[in-house]
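Appendix B: complex inputs.
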Amino acid sequence: MSDYRAPVKDMRFAMDELAGFRELSRIPGFEEATPDLADAILDEAAKFAGEVLAPLNRIGDTEGCKLGPNGVTTPAGWKEAYAAFSEAGWNGITSPAEFGGQGLPDSLGVAVKEMVCSANLSFSLGPLLTTGAVEALLTCASDELKSVYLEKMITGEWTGTMNLTEPQAGSDLALIRSRAEPQADGSYRVFGQKIFITYGDHDMTDNIVHLVLARLPDAPPGVKGISMFLVPKFLVNADGSLGARNDAHCVSIEHKLGIHASPTCVMAYGDNGGAVGYLLGEPNRGLEYMFIMMNEARLGVGLQGIALGERAYQQALGYARERKQGRDAITGEALVSIDKHPDIRRMLMLMKCRVEACRAMAYYTSGLLDRAHAAGHTEEGKRQLWLAEFMIPIVKGGGTEMGVDVTSLGIQIHGGMGFIEETGAAQHWRDSRITTIYEGTTGIQANDLLFRKLMRDQGATAKLVFGEVYATVKALAASGNPELQAIGQRLGTALKAWTEATEWLAANARSGLSGVLTAAVPYLHLAVTVCGGWLMGKAALAAAGYLDKGEGDQAFYRTKLVTARFYADQLLPQAAAFAETVMAGDCGVPEGVDLFAAD
Amino acid sequence: MSDYRAPVKDMRFAMDELAGFRELSRIPGFEEATPDLADAILDEAAKFAGEVLAPLNRIGDTEGCKLGPNGVTTPAGWKEAYAAFSEAGWNGITSPAEFGGQGLPDSLGVAVKEMVCSANLSFSLGPLLTTGAVEALLTCASDELKSVYLEKMITGEWTGTMNLTEPQAGSDLALIRSRAEPQADGSYRVFGQKIFITYGDHDMTDNIVHLVLARLPDAPPGVKGISMFLVPKFLVNADGSLGARNDAHCVSIEHKLGIHASPTCVMAYGDNGGAVGYLLGEPNRGLEYMFIMMNEARLGVGLQGIALGERAYQQALGYARERKQGRDAITGEALVSIDKHPDIRRMLMLMKCRVEACRAMAYYTSGLLDRAHAAGHTEEGKRQLWLAEFMIPIVKGGGTEMGVDVTSLGIQIHGGMGFIEETGAAQHWRDSRITTIYEGTTGIQANDLLFRKLMRDQGATAKLVFGEVYATVKALAASGNPELQAIGQRLGTALKAWTEATEWLAANARSGLSGVLTAAVPYLHLAVTVCGGWLMGKAALAAAGYLDKGEGDQAFYRTKLVTARFYADQLLPQAAAFAETVMAGDCGVPEGVDLFAAD
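Resulting structure:
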């Protein structure tokens, strides 16, 4: 068991210096998002996360959810915590005010969401899925469906789920078999089984709103024949009260490696005559609607990796400060706390700087989304949106892979105690392991970056990013500060590796597809490494500015310079290695040879 | 649940081509270790591991061990499997024949041990600890103690344990407080509590032989005042029959992240008047005796990482061949098994080549130990021993870190199913997580490599290794085979990085100790990366030879060339990055600054 104290200072720094939150309140539509409001919200959220949600994290892990005859029961304290969460308005923090949300910008919401994930990942998944479903309804629901469902989901009175996966259809949604039959009254009857449905059932709210992908009778095969349906657990009467129980049931829950308190349900629709459902938007456009939500959901999962990394870092730091072992290698002092040992310090630094770099990427991206949102359907709006969409697989892939690595370092710092479940360090690692899989595996993020985000505009967006990185390299070089210049030199080398690898991919995309495909994940790692170094470089420039002026928390800014330098020395050299791997092509795997034949 | 089929072909290849097993039977003392005998033993061991031990692996995970009033109960089937294991003589395979062992060389035993670990890591730990205790008795026990205990431990009739850790003394044995009081009859009474005692109690044998580190009344403080005692669970009568129950009890067992079926005990000695113990060797030399065993134990744990990587690879490959998802990106064929997808193939190749590279290192090292053993106290014997000792932290650190990475890839290949415990993929990852911690953390291995193995002879042994790697670089370059030359080029670059980093460390060891200390783990990764590439290069040379001659299993040798090339392209570029990180020095961490102050 460990406490969680939200890193408000670093969050605020990332918001102000990297996401451009401070300037946001000057943009029409975000006038209310003032620095003062942000202070108040971050403080309240930090309190709620630390005091209400964090203490339930280990209880959730040990108790888990149970499936009984009346459905799924959440662990002790869950229901009350959820009620308090909704009551305080946290559920709808970035949802539109017209439907009961707070209407706050993503670049503020991102910090609140990180806190909730750090405090209790299993808990956070309910609201995450609900927010996703809300986005879908905002995108494509009729006014009538919106009026019945939206406000209750935004306030958190009801939760939402996303039903994509079927046993035969994991990442490959073309294989979906669930079907929907039109009824005379304009509704549908939905039939099929869905698996891996997060919070598919629970006891925290009176109703659950399932969004289900299924096929209409005349639908074309493949992904172009999938429609989206709203299937409530309880039907809703005309006056808004709950009606009959719908034919949508959780038939089993999974026994998982982690996030034990998040019920992962097998859902059966229509086993008793058909589940009443309502078509969302137009027929056969379900996948398209799903992809609209995907950006936010992937950013959210990237944030989960960051959040678990932060929690693991705090716990490891706390342990290292308390645990006394061995002699100080430099001073010779006997029986020092292990945070004095160089390799423990190295691991703590690695945890800290990798979390901060990924946080910088996630918050920066949320700022892009705010600007895209504010600018709407203009050239500038599109530019910001495409930049955000370019960053999203980097944040998702990078944040989650980092989360697995960093929570593992957290165990390592605990030594043998890290392997004992009571310590709680292992839970973060177990919980993290799903994040590189759900909402699209790391391999899928890499393909998205390479084949969609990079190639859809022939590298135009990528060149914008390269230009931004190069501007940071130049600013660091021009700073006159040797620490910043050292960072700039490493960043410049890493950027060169990234651009070279990108050119290689562009040149080889047609001639050697197999090599380009195997290069995708190393290319993603390369992009993550450079983007992390770039934003740490920007952070260092900002920090150095405050140090020069003697403004603000000087100790915090000094530390930021050191973490940026550490990232540059320890992480940026890997960029060249990833680039070499990308450009190695098809990894020496001759086509058509079954390499695994002997195994 | 997954099957395990021992990779006998690759094991035999590593034994013959890298460990020099084929030549071993010409060395006096190893005449019996003929290729035919090896065939027979590997086949039998493979059968036993696959048919008896592997099916118990998941049962062990789900049932775990229980502590009741009569001590620890192992899971269903454990006791019978252990009896069969001992009966077949597997326990004493490398122990001296004069005490009932098989007296076989390490370079054959290593393959058998790998099989047992792959099949069932929790099971393997009992015999591993027993073998360690046997080594200790062989080193320092009186003839009397040897005659009473050794044969029964070698045959497996009794098991052994190692009792080092105490709550306040983890990696820092100077803090040990357990004490031993001399008695008039020459025995001792031992008092104290020990934690993390693997197989400290169980129901598989009639007796358990605990080796306990404790202090004599007049012992000097610190590590020079620690003695080693033999404390049996049941005293042994003069006729060899079991006597009174000794005052040595398991008081609790840990709830762990993995290896659930290996009981991790808190042991209480002397709570009821004192546990009868016998001094092993001379007073105050306990730590020295412990270090003698350490080589073998660390090699054994490195092997565990390899074994789990192999098991995870087999399971992931099996799943990828069965699971159908998506379209072939190159041929366009619909609904192909996922082993056709480039990124899945990349992950499978990464698993395979990393396991094979680490296997090569471990088996090579066991060959060095055999030669050291055969040559005894000669110059040649010392040279071989020091080479082996140089390799051991590389095998331990490299094999275990690889095991964690590769079992994680195993989960990733399973997608969402990997997160479901029933699949069994997650167990390998959980089990692997202890291996980078026990028998010395990765940080401790790195310090051992740098400050002991590298510096104790001013780099002389390292230069021998560099020379061997260089010889392989030259042979690859001279081969006339473009595949081999490509490998040679990458290996040459990587070797240059390793030598440069080594020279930097030698130059800075005195002036900037802090930087050298933080460089230790990156330096270990560098050594692992290059040694893996070196032995894969040697393997490729051998394979190419057989291909040229048209001898042996041509498909196997062709695959070996590809895995070697894959390793060179995907792993060797990282050597330069690790070297840069090593030479970055103290990672920009100014001394005396509390970087974590804000956290």
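The CA atoms of residues 446 and 520 of chain A lie 5 Å apart.
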